[in-house]
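re: ur msg from earlier - yeah i can do the protoporphyrin IX containing FE complex, just paste it... oh wait u already did. ok heres what im feeding in:
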Amino acid sequence: MEKLTTASGIPYVNHEDTQSAGARGPLLLQDFILHEKLAHFNRERIPERIVHAKGSAAYGTFTVTSDITSYSKAKLFGEIGKQTRVLLRFSTVGGEKGSADTERDPRGFAVKFYTEDGNWDLVGNNTPVFFIKDPKKFPDFIHTQKRDPFTNCKSATMVWDFFSLNPESLHQVLFLMSDRGTPYGFRYMHGFGSHTYTLINKENEIVYVKFHFKSVQGIRNFTSAEAKLMRGEDPDFAQRDLLNAIEDGNFPKWTLKIQVMTPEQAAAYSFNPFDLTTVWSQNEYPLIEVGELELNQNPDNYFSEVEQAAFAPSRIVDGIGHSPDKMLQGRILAYPDAQRYRLGVNFEQLPVNRCPFIVNNYQRDGLMRVDDNGKRSPNYFPNSFDNIKPDAAYARPAEQVHQPVADWFDRNAEGENDHYTQPGIFYRNVLSQEDKSRLVSNIAESMRQIEGPLKEEIINRQLCHFFRAEFSLGMAVMNELGIDPGDMTRHMPSKK
Ligand code: HEM
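and the outut:
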């Protein structure tokens, strides 16, 4: 038997009845255990993630299967067979913490590698591209994915208004509206780092890189109708599926592959290689195998290990770097800021986020400091007492400021705005005939929900984008929506 105690360890007996003035009387203020129970309960909720609030995670192992040391000196890639512990959190994007797992949405694919050089977070999605290419647009975009300020309901009108006014979204919209927008849980989908990152080798030479996690289970999706049904039958389908598979010893696996581009190739590439709305051709930049990621351990406590987990693209380790991708640059700032708000300034000391290797710095105090706070050691640098020194071996090469920054102060160049070529290729070459017809029917199903006086304008503006990517796609969506081509020209969209 173990004794029941208060939070401060005081054993007590009356867990279910409060001290009162007589058996029927009013309660006594002195029953501090009642206060403790109710007060703690009142504070159980913390802010949910502003995006990706609904998610599931598991621990696992990353094992190197191929040698990429010519590209990266990162210790986790150090030798074939090397293993690193990981935490992988999957999520939907727009829904609240209690929303259904099978909503049409991209899926988050966030991996924390607990490496001996610190924690590396690769925070990606199940899609290689994204809706926007400038971080300033992110809050506006996300508002359209959440609830309407008046109706407090999700709104297809907001969604398609934003998409149609931001044609850079088209590539990702086609992914989203295909059956990849409703994956069968989390095990049967690929993951992507999505952004361009850098790898840095021992000679401090850099290459640009895209990370791909290929599902060993293969790809499996729900159709729109199946996903809708599952929202009612089991809103937590993906959580249950992942948890049960791991409990049963049926460990899901992904193969990590990379695409590599030299700075010279990047300068000459036909698309801006740092534009998150585009992909790199796999014919020109083939996938190179790196290792295998296996999920093999369920967290014991959801709140402690999943809700309190904090992933941030800012956390990169020696041998891996960022790139000039504007979206990635914006994310470097956003995540730790969100986590200080959501979890408090000392969130990196929470066990799930704590680096299991050496952590030495002069950050002290702050709300909920839960470690020894550096004990008696100096809290300033430089000092004459401790022996903590910056290690020059970890200096980041100058190339990481990315030399081709001739136009130092600039914004998105008009010439970079080809929003249609790659979506057209995706539609024509990647999707099967069956995928295409389901894509068209999913688009029409969603666009039919556009409401209000600007309905026709929004629909026509978006149809133009489909037409510009691929004429037959525009025709198919128009037919599916039952729109007469003559009607469309009457409502040609205002130019954006
Ligand atoms: C500039 C654009 C973006 C901004 C400002 C942004 C911001 C955020 C913020 C504030 C969070 C919540 C973090 C937390 O509370 O722990 C988050 C979560 C997340 N974001 Fe983004 N995001 C952006 C773009 C992206 C992109 C392009 C991807 C994927 C390629 C992505 C993937 C994720 C994932 C997977 C999570 C959940 C991480 C977890 O499981 O805890 N985000 N984002």
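cool cool. The chain is about 30% helix and 15% strand. ping me if u need the other ligands too
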